[in-house]
Write a structure and sequence with these properties.
Length: 267
Amino acid sequence: MAFEKVGDSYKSAVAEQCDYNHALLVGDKIWLFGKKFVSQPTFNWGHHVGFVGSYAIAFNTADNKWEDSHTYPALSNEENVEEKMFVLNGAAHTLLYTAFGEVAMSSLHKWTGNSFEPVNLQSFAPIPGSEKSARVTMEVADSADESTKYIITTMEHQMRVARLTSSGDSATIEHLFDIPAEGILSLAQATSAVVSGERLLVCFGVHGCGFRWESGRIIACDLGSKSCQTLEISSDPKPHWGFNGANGYGLLPSGAWVHAAGSVPRG
C-alpha cells in the first residue's frame, strides 16, 4: 500500500495547537477539533476534551488545503462530564454524558461549520452505579444508517446498548438491552463497535493485570432478539493492535469493517 502526502500540517493554519484532536470525515472535509487537558480532581482523574471550548479547522480534500480555523466557547464547565464525537446526518456532533457514577446523557450539539448549536435531546433515565467513582466509557457504532447510532457504554464491567435516533432538530436516545456480563465478559469493556446488517459487533478488552484488548474474540448482538454471543476469531497470525484495539476503524460500503493502526505496544 502506497501513501501520498496531499497537504501541509494543520499547524500552519492554527496559531495555538492542542496536543490532541478529534478527527472526523464529513463529506469532502476532514475536521479537526482541538482537545484541551482538564483535571477532574474529585475523581482523581483528568482528560483531554473539546467541550471546554477550543478550535475547529477543516482540510478540504477537493483542493487539499486547510480552510480558516474557527473558535467556539465552552459547551459545559462541569467536572463530571465526558464527550464523544461522531458524524450524524452528514454533520459532526458532540454528545456529552456523565463521566462517573451513572450512565446518563447530558446534551447533544451539532457543528454547523463555524459553531456548535444545541440539539433537543430526549434520553432514558440515568442508570446509577454502585459507587460515585465508577467510571463510564462509551463507544459509538458505525452504521449504514446516517440518522441512527448505536451507543455502547461500560460501567463497572456492565456493557449496555442504547440507540440514538435523529429527526430534524431533535434526537432521542433509548436504552435497548444489557450485554450479559458472564464468563470473560464479567471483566470486559467495549473498545469499538459496528452495525453489520441486523447485528451489532463489539470489540472489547478485559481488565486484569492492566487492560488488554481481546484480539481473538468479538461480541455479536442480534438487534432484533436483543441476544448476544461471544464469537471466536480464528485468523492467524492475529494483528498487534495494542492494548485498546485499533487506532482507527471504519465501515466500508462493501460491509467490511476496516481497522488500522501504526506502531503499537507489544508484550
